[in-house]
Amino acid sequence: MHTARIVDMNSVKRMFPSPLFRAMRWVRRRRQISLPQQIDASCRETEIFWNDEFADLLETWGANNAWNELLFLFAGRTGRVLDIGCGVGVAISLLDRFSKLEAWGFDLSEKLVNRAVQRGVGTGRLTIGEATKMPFADASFAWGYTLGMLHYLTDEEIIKVLRECDRVVIGSTFHQIPVDRQGNDMGWVKTFQTVQNNSLAWWEAKFRSVYPSVEILDSSWADDMSLGKWAICNRG
């Protein structure tokens, strides 16, 4: 006579953690180690971009919010579009549903680009490079965008990236950014990662220093510290 065994799902998760479960466990662990605190720019950490758990987190980061908004922004558009800091390539894969768009991407992290290749993004549309010095000729793309990427950069790097966007993109660029919930300019903040957490006015000044026309839209993305916004930058 066989006896039914009761399976402890928590034990199963510990033995065979899914990418999402592993990523969220890593985030919780990092938050326990470091509560939100202001830090100096010299303490910025960049190792996170080569971290497996961070790559797992990017697999679901914009689900039901920023990625849906990106699809609305690009529906009906045509031409080549550049994903600046493409991460694991989820957004590129989503845009592939639009037959008249050709989505390209690049990222600083070879690990993240390799993950994009694994998900089926063609290697001919991906490259490794720095956003402050994009590996493309002038006016190479009709459109461009960043998703939750600019707040990892220093003030100087943000301006350089926007100038590079203006150089390689003919039309508008769309930038999804987090802004401080309280409207404060906190500068660099460390939680489970190190990012800039500043007011909408701070960000808008950065965009307007490069682009003559900037429109701000709400994003449904949010976390405990920040609210999401879209900055739509036009060359005039």
Could you characterize the architecture of this molecule?
There is one protein chain. This protein is of the alpha/beta class and 236 residues long. The chain has one domain (37-234): Vaccinia Virus protein VP39 (Rossmann fold, 3-Layer(aba) Sandwich). The chain contains 8 helices and 10 strands. The protein has helices at residues 9-15, 19-33, 52-58, 66-74, 90-95, 110-118, 155-168, 200-208; strands spanning 37-38, 79-84, 101-107, 126-128, 143-147, 173-180, 188-190, 194-196, 213-222, 226-234. The strands form 2 sheets. It has a 7-stranded mixed sheet, sandwiched between helices. Helix 7 (155-168) links the parallel strand 5 and strand 6 (173-180). Helix 2 crosses helix 3. The longest helix is centred in the N-terminal third of the chain and has 15 residues, at 19-33.
Features:
Rossmann fold; three-stranded antiparallel beta sheet; alpha/beta; 236 residues; disordered N terminus; globular; seven-stranded mixed beta sheet
Question: How would the global form be characterised?
Answer: globular
Average predicted confidence as pLDDT: 88
Total strands: the figure is: 10
Oligomeric grouping of the chains = single chain
Number of discrete domains: 1
Q: Output the strand order for the largest sheet.
A: 4-3-2-5-6-10-9
Describe the sheet with the most strands: 7 strands, mixed
Looking at the overall shape, the CATH architecture is 3-Layer(aba) Sandwich
- Report strand %: 15-25%
Specify Rg, calculated over alpha carbons. Answer: 19 Å
Fraction of residues in H or I helices: 25-40%
CATH class: Alpha Beta
CATH topology: Rossmann fold
- Which stretches are low in confidence, meaning pLDDT under 50 for 5 or more residues running? 1-7, 11-16, 30-34
CATH homologous superfamily title: Vaccinia Virus protein VP39
SSE order: HHEHHEHEHEEHEEEHEE
Structural class based on helices, strands and sheet pairing: alpha/beta
Alpha carbon gap, first and last residue: 79 Å
Count of helical stretches: 8
